[in-house]
Sequence to fold (637 residues):
Amino acid sequence: MTSPVLPSHGRVRPLGLTQVSLTGGFWGGRQTVNATATLAHCESWMERLGWLANFDRVADGSTGPDRPGWSFSDSEVYKLLEALSWESARSGDPEAESAIKRLTARVARAQDPDGYLNTCFGHPGRPPRYSDLEMGHELYNTGHLLQAAVARLRTAGDDDLVRVARRAADHVCRTFGPGGIDGVCGHPEIEVGLAEFGRALGEPRYVEQARLFIERRGHGRLKDIPLGRAYFQDDIPVREADVWRGHAVRALYLAAASVDVAVETRDSGLLDAVRRQWERSVSRRTYVTGGMGSRHQDEGFGEDWELPPDRAYCETCAGVASIMVSWRLYLATGDVRYTDLIERTLYNVVATSPSADGRAFFYANPLHQRAAGRPADPDEVSPRAEAGVRAAWFDVSCCPTNVARTLAGLHTYLATVDDDGLQLLQYAAGEIRAELPGGRPVALDVETAYPDDGTVRVRVVAGPDEPWTLSLRVPGWADGATLTEGGRTTTVAPGLTRVRRAFAAGDEIVLELPVTPRFTWPDPRIDAVRGCVAVERGPEVLCVESADLPSPGVLDALTIDAGSAPRAVPGGAVVRGRARGVPDQAWSYRDRPLSGDGGDWFDVPLRPYHAWARRGPSSMRIFLPIADPHPPTQEGA
Ligand SMILES: [Zn+2]
Fold:
């Protein structure tokens, strides 16, 4: 089976990479751009910046103090190798295959005789091996190597990349196993890599090493730092923690690995801990976009309700990592609320990052951009994560390759099977050619223009003669959804809706999801957006951009009539709003409230957030202040 995540057991089972295909539409288009532009874009930047030559220098013995790139630049090569492996299997693209071969050859030459593989440490002119577990990212890099090898192993078999990874994993087990260094990596990732590599090879000792790393964490083995040990989740053991905290990507990679280990070792206490952390973190520390991470200083989670829209960090990688966690929890439990969050995060974080041409990316994904960015030079490396525009590449460039590997295998998130039938989870134009348990083939075609249109047609092309269950996820936001099958239309509630019967070829089931634009009110405890409202359309969060307003200043002064529902227009929605006349003053504070909203009402256009700044630099906001229907009368504005 060719899938990124294959637990040995669980409530539901994923489908393979070649059992589902996208035939166009929102995600099919993005997957094509990823294949035809992003993959080559990533390789060319890594070549240009010397991140690939770092491997050659280790092989040639010419390392020195002047190594380009951060300590984690090796991991970008591995994430690209993972993306290329999924892409090669998906499309059979010969260019992807030859890129895998040429990158693997350079990586393999840099491996030391004992299996150690890292271009930053352990060679002449470089710091010694494992001399900076807090910030050195050595094991983190190896984790990504293992994930790339899993992709290769499951799609092409035991090749050079897999052999390199096996020797690297053995080196890690010897060095950090019982009796070895009693430490953990400052950036979790080795755990999720080892766990899946162990599954893919049927080698429990790799899962066991992942378990050791997870159990060691949270006991203060890493040095304290100004950001505190919570930064790398070394403050509280995973099974005792109630909420995600510290660096968001670290917290989420660790959570994903913890689910893997919990499932493989049948450790319900560990699984329950991650489920508990998901509940609290999703209900109190997650943006409406699904984005995670409120703090720039440590790229981290804030306290409960600390969700400022303009200071939202919402790193693209944290979105990818959140999907990794939710997918594993769904496979273990069959609870489709996890796939609701996957949908939200896919449309509003993962889809937001890349430009239409797949050659520029957002790193941070704020929900409010106060000042438009400067046009980005496609030939320049962005030194900063936050710029208000998509950048071709970053000094810290973790996000583009994370988007690439996610999009290359995106269709594996569409559906699962269990003993009773098939579950359709995400809606995209595509084909499913899978097997129900007992080797019974089932073929479905999905026709839809979702999310622009809420109609999803599922046609049975072939299937078993006896009854089986086709289940469709009704998203949590989809109040009033209907299902038509066998000539009957019924209203279906959010959750998994099941149709059990014998299907004949040609049978059609039609799900109607209400994608009418709707207001979304935040919990009043999220102080930063109290008195504001957002607009969503289906799974998409919408936003207002300055480019659609009479002048940029209008965005700051905008208030919305929350009493009249948003109206659908092609490509988005409009709401009724006006620009409050706010006089500039020498001091921003006064002894009474500013009264009145002022200005004439006009239609305020909203567009999908994932498309913001595609027309050029712009200011933008998702949460819109609600016009006061009863303004105080003390003072005219
Ligand atoms: Zn990133």
